[in-house]
Amino acid sequence: MSMFCYQCEQTAKGEGCTVKGVCGKDPDVAALQDLLVHTCKGIGTYAAAAKQQGKSDQEINRFQAFALFSTLTNVNFDAERLAGVLKDAGAILDKAVALAGADASGRPESCKPAGDLAGLIAQGHEVGILKRRDTLGDDITGLQELITYGLKGVAAYAYHAAILGQEDDAVYDYINNALDLLTNPSPTVDMLLSCALKCGEINLRTMELLDAGNTGAYGDQEPTVVRVTPIRGKCIVVSGHDLKDLEELLKQTEGKGINVYTHGEMLTANAYPGLKKYSHLVGNYGSAWQEQGKEFADFPGAILMTTNCIQKPKGYIDRIFTSGPTAWPGVKHIADHNYAPVIEAALAAPGFAEDAEEKTITIGFARSAVLGVADKVIAAVKSGAIKHFFLIGGCDGAKAGRNYYTELAQSVPQDSVILTLACGKYRFNKLEFGDIGGIPRLLDVGQCNDAYSAVQIAVALAGAFECGVNDLPLTMILSWYEQKAVAILLTLLHLGIQGIKLGPSLPAFITPAALNILVEKFNIAPISESAQADIQAALA
C-alpha cells in the first residue's frame, strides 16, 4: 500500500484508501498528515506532563488545535505547506519538552520532524495506522482513531472559537491529555471508550465557546429570507466555516461594486445581524461542498475558501484563494486578512451579466429563534398539531446513498417538524415544506457547530415537558462525512442520547466489537435501505 486512510465516510470500498485518497490527497500528503498527528501526540505528552506541574503555554495549545485541524479531511492538500507546519511542530515540541523540564525524563520518545520534505515523508510512512494495527489489533486501533478523529473535530471548533476570543484551558488540557493517552503502548478498551465519551463532553464545551464567539461578535441568528439565485454584477463567493474571514472580506469590499455570496456551510452567515448588515452580502450561491467543482467553474468571479471543504480546482485555479489552515498546491493563500488579490480577481472577472429569476429560502432558526417561540411549539405539541420532531442533518457528500435523506425529509408526515443543520440540509432545503400553525416545518439551525443549538433546543423542550431528552417525540437521523461529525456524534453519546441512526454507511474504523458496545450502550444503528421504514419505526 502506498498509503492508508479511513478517516472519512467516502473511504475506498468502505475499508480504506490505499493508493490515493478519495478526497484527492496523494500518498505524500497522507504521510505528512500522519507524521503531523504523531508529532502532536508527542507534544501532547510533554504538555500534559507540564500541566501536572501547573505549567501551560498558549502557543503550544493553539498550535495543537491548528495542526490537528490541518489534517482534517478536505483541508490541506499542499505538501510544502504541511512541511512548513511540521517545521513549526518541531519547534513547538522542543518548547513542550523544555516546559515539562525534569518530568520529561522517562516519557515516550517523540518523532522529531526531519529537516527536508523527503525525510518527512519517509518518517510519515513509519507512523501510520497500519504500523499500530499490526501491533495493537483492529479493535484497539479503531478506538484510538475514534478518539483521534473526535480530537480533530474539537480542534477545528477550538481554532474557530479562539479567533473570536473564546478559549478554555479545559479544552486544551483534554486535547493534550488525550494525545498523551494515544501514546500508551497497551491501552484497554474501557480506557479508550472513556476517553472517547470525554471527547464528546469537551466538544460540547468547545461548541459552546464557538457559539459564544459567533453570537458575541455578530448577534444571535434570526429567521432570514435568503436569495439563492445570482444578481447582476461583479462577485465573490465565500465557502467554508470562518465567519471572521467573511467579515473582513465584507469590510474590504464595501463600496467597490462587488456582490458577495456565501456557499456551503457559510450559508448560515446570512442570518447573523452583524454580517447581513452589509448590503453587498446578497445571498447564497450553489449548494454543498462536493458540488463546488461544477459550481465554481460556472461562477464568474473570485472564490475564497475559508477552512475546510476545498476540492481540486477545475479550470479556476487563477481566481480561487485559501485562508486559515486550508491549502491546495498552486492556489494563492491569504494569511493576513489582506484580500486585495481576491478583490482584484473579482474585478477582472466578468461577473453575472443579468439577474436570475429570484428564488429564496428561509434560514436562521438557531436556539434563540426557536426558544423565542417555545410557547407556541409547546402548545402545538400539547394540542397534537405537532406529533414528532425529526433531526435530519450532518455532512453531505458525493457517495451514492445520500438521496436517502431527500426521500426521508419528503416522507416525514405533515404533522412533524424537521430540524436540520450542516451541509446535509442541501439535500432538501430548497424544497417547500409549509408550516404548522405558523411554525415552519423545516427549521434550519445552521452550521455543523450549531449542533450546540440543536442540543439546547432539545434540552429546553425536555425541561418544558418535565422529561428526559430520550422521552421526547424526537428522532435523530444523521449523515456523516468527516471528523467534526465524529466529534458531534461523541457529544450526543456523552449526553446519553439513545436510538441515533447514522448513515449513509458506518465508519470503517469502528470494528464489529466496538460497534456492539455502542449498540448495547446507546442503541445506535445504521440507517435502513428504506426511509419510510425508518420513519415508521421512529413513530412506532
Short summary:
With 540 residues, the protein is α/β, with parallel strands linked by helices. It has 19 helices and 16 strands.
What does this structure look like?
- With 540 residues, the chain is an alpha/beta fold.
- It is built from 19 helices and 16 strands.
- The chain has a six-stranded parallel sheet, covered by helices on one side. It has a six-stranded parallel sheet with strand order 13-10-9-14-15-16.
- β11 and β12 form a beta hairpin.
- α1 runs parallel beside α3, α6 runs antiparallel to α7 and α8 packs across α17.
- The protein starts with 26 loop residues before the first helix and ends with a helix.
- The model has no long low-confidence stretch (mean pLDDT 95).
Shape: globular
> SS-based structural class?
alpha/beta
Distance between the termini: 47 Å
| Sheet with the most strands, sense and barrel status | 6 strands, parallel
Helix residue percentage? 40-55%
Q: pLDDT under 50 segments (min length 5)? A: none
**Strand residue content:** 5-15%
Record the strand order, biggest sheet.
4-3-2-5-6-7
| Quantity of strands, as a count | 16
Average pLDDT, rounded to a whole number, is 95
Rg, Cα atoms, Å: 23 Å
How many helical elements? 19
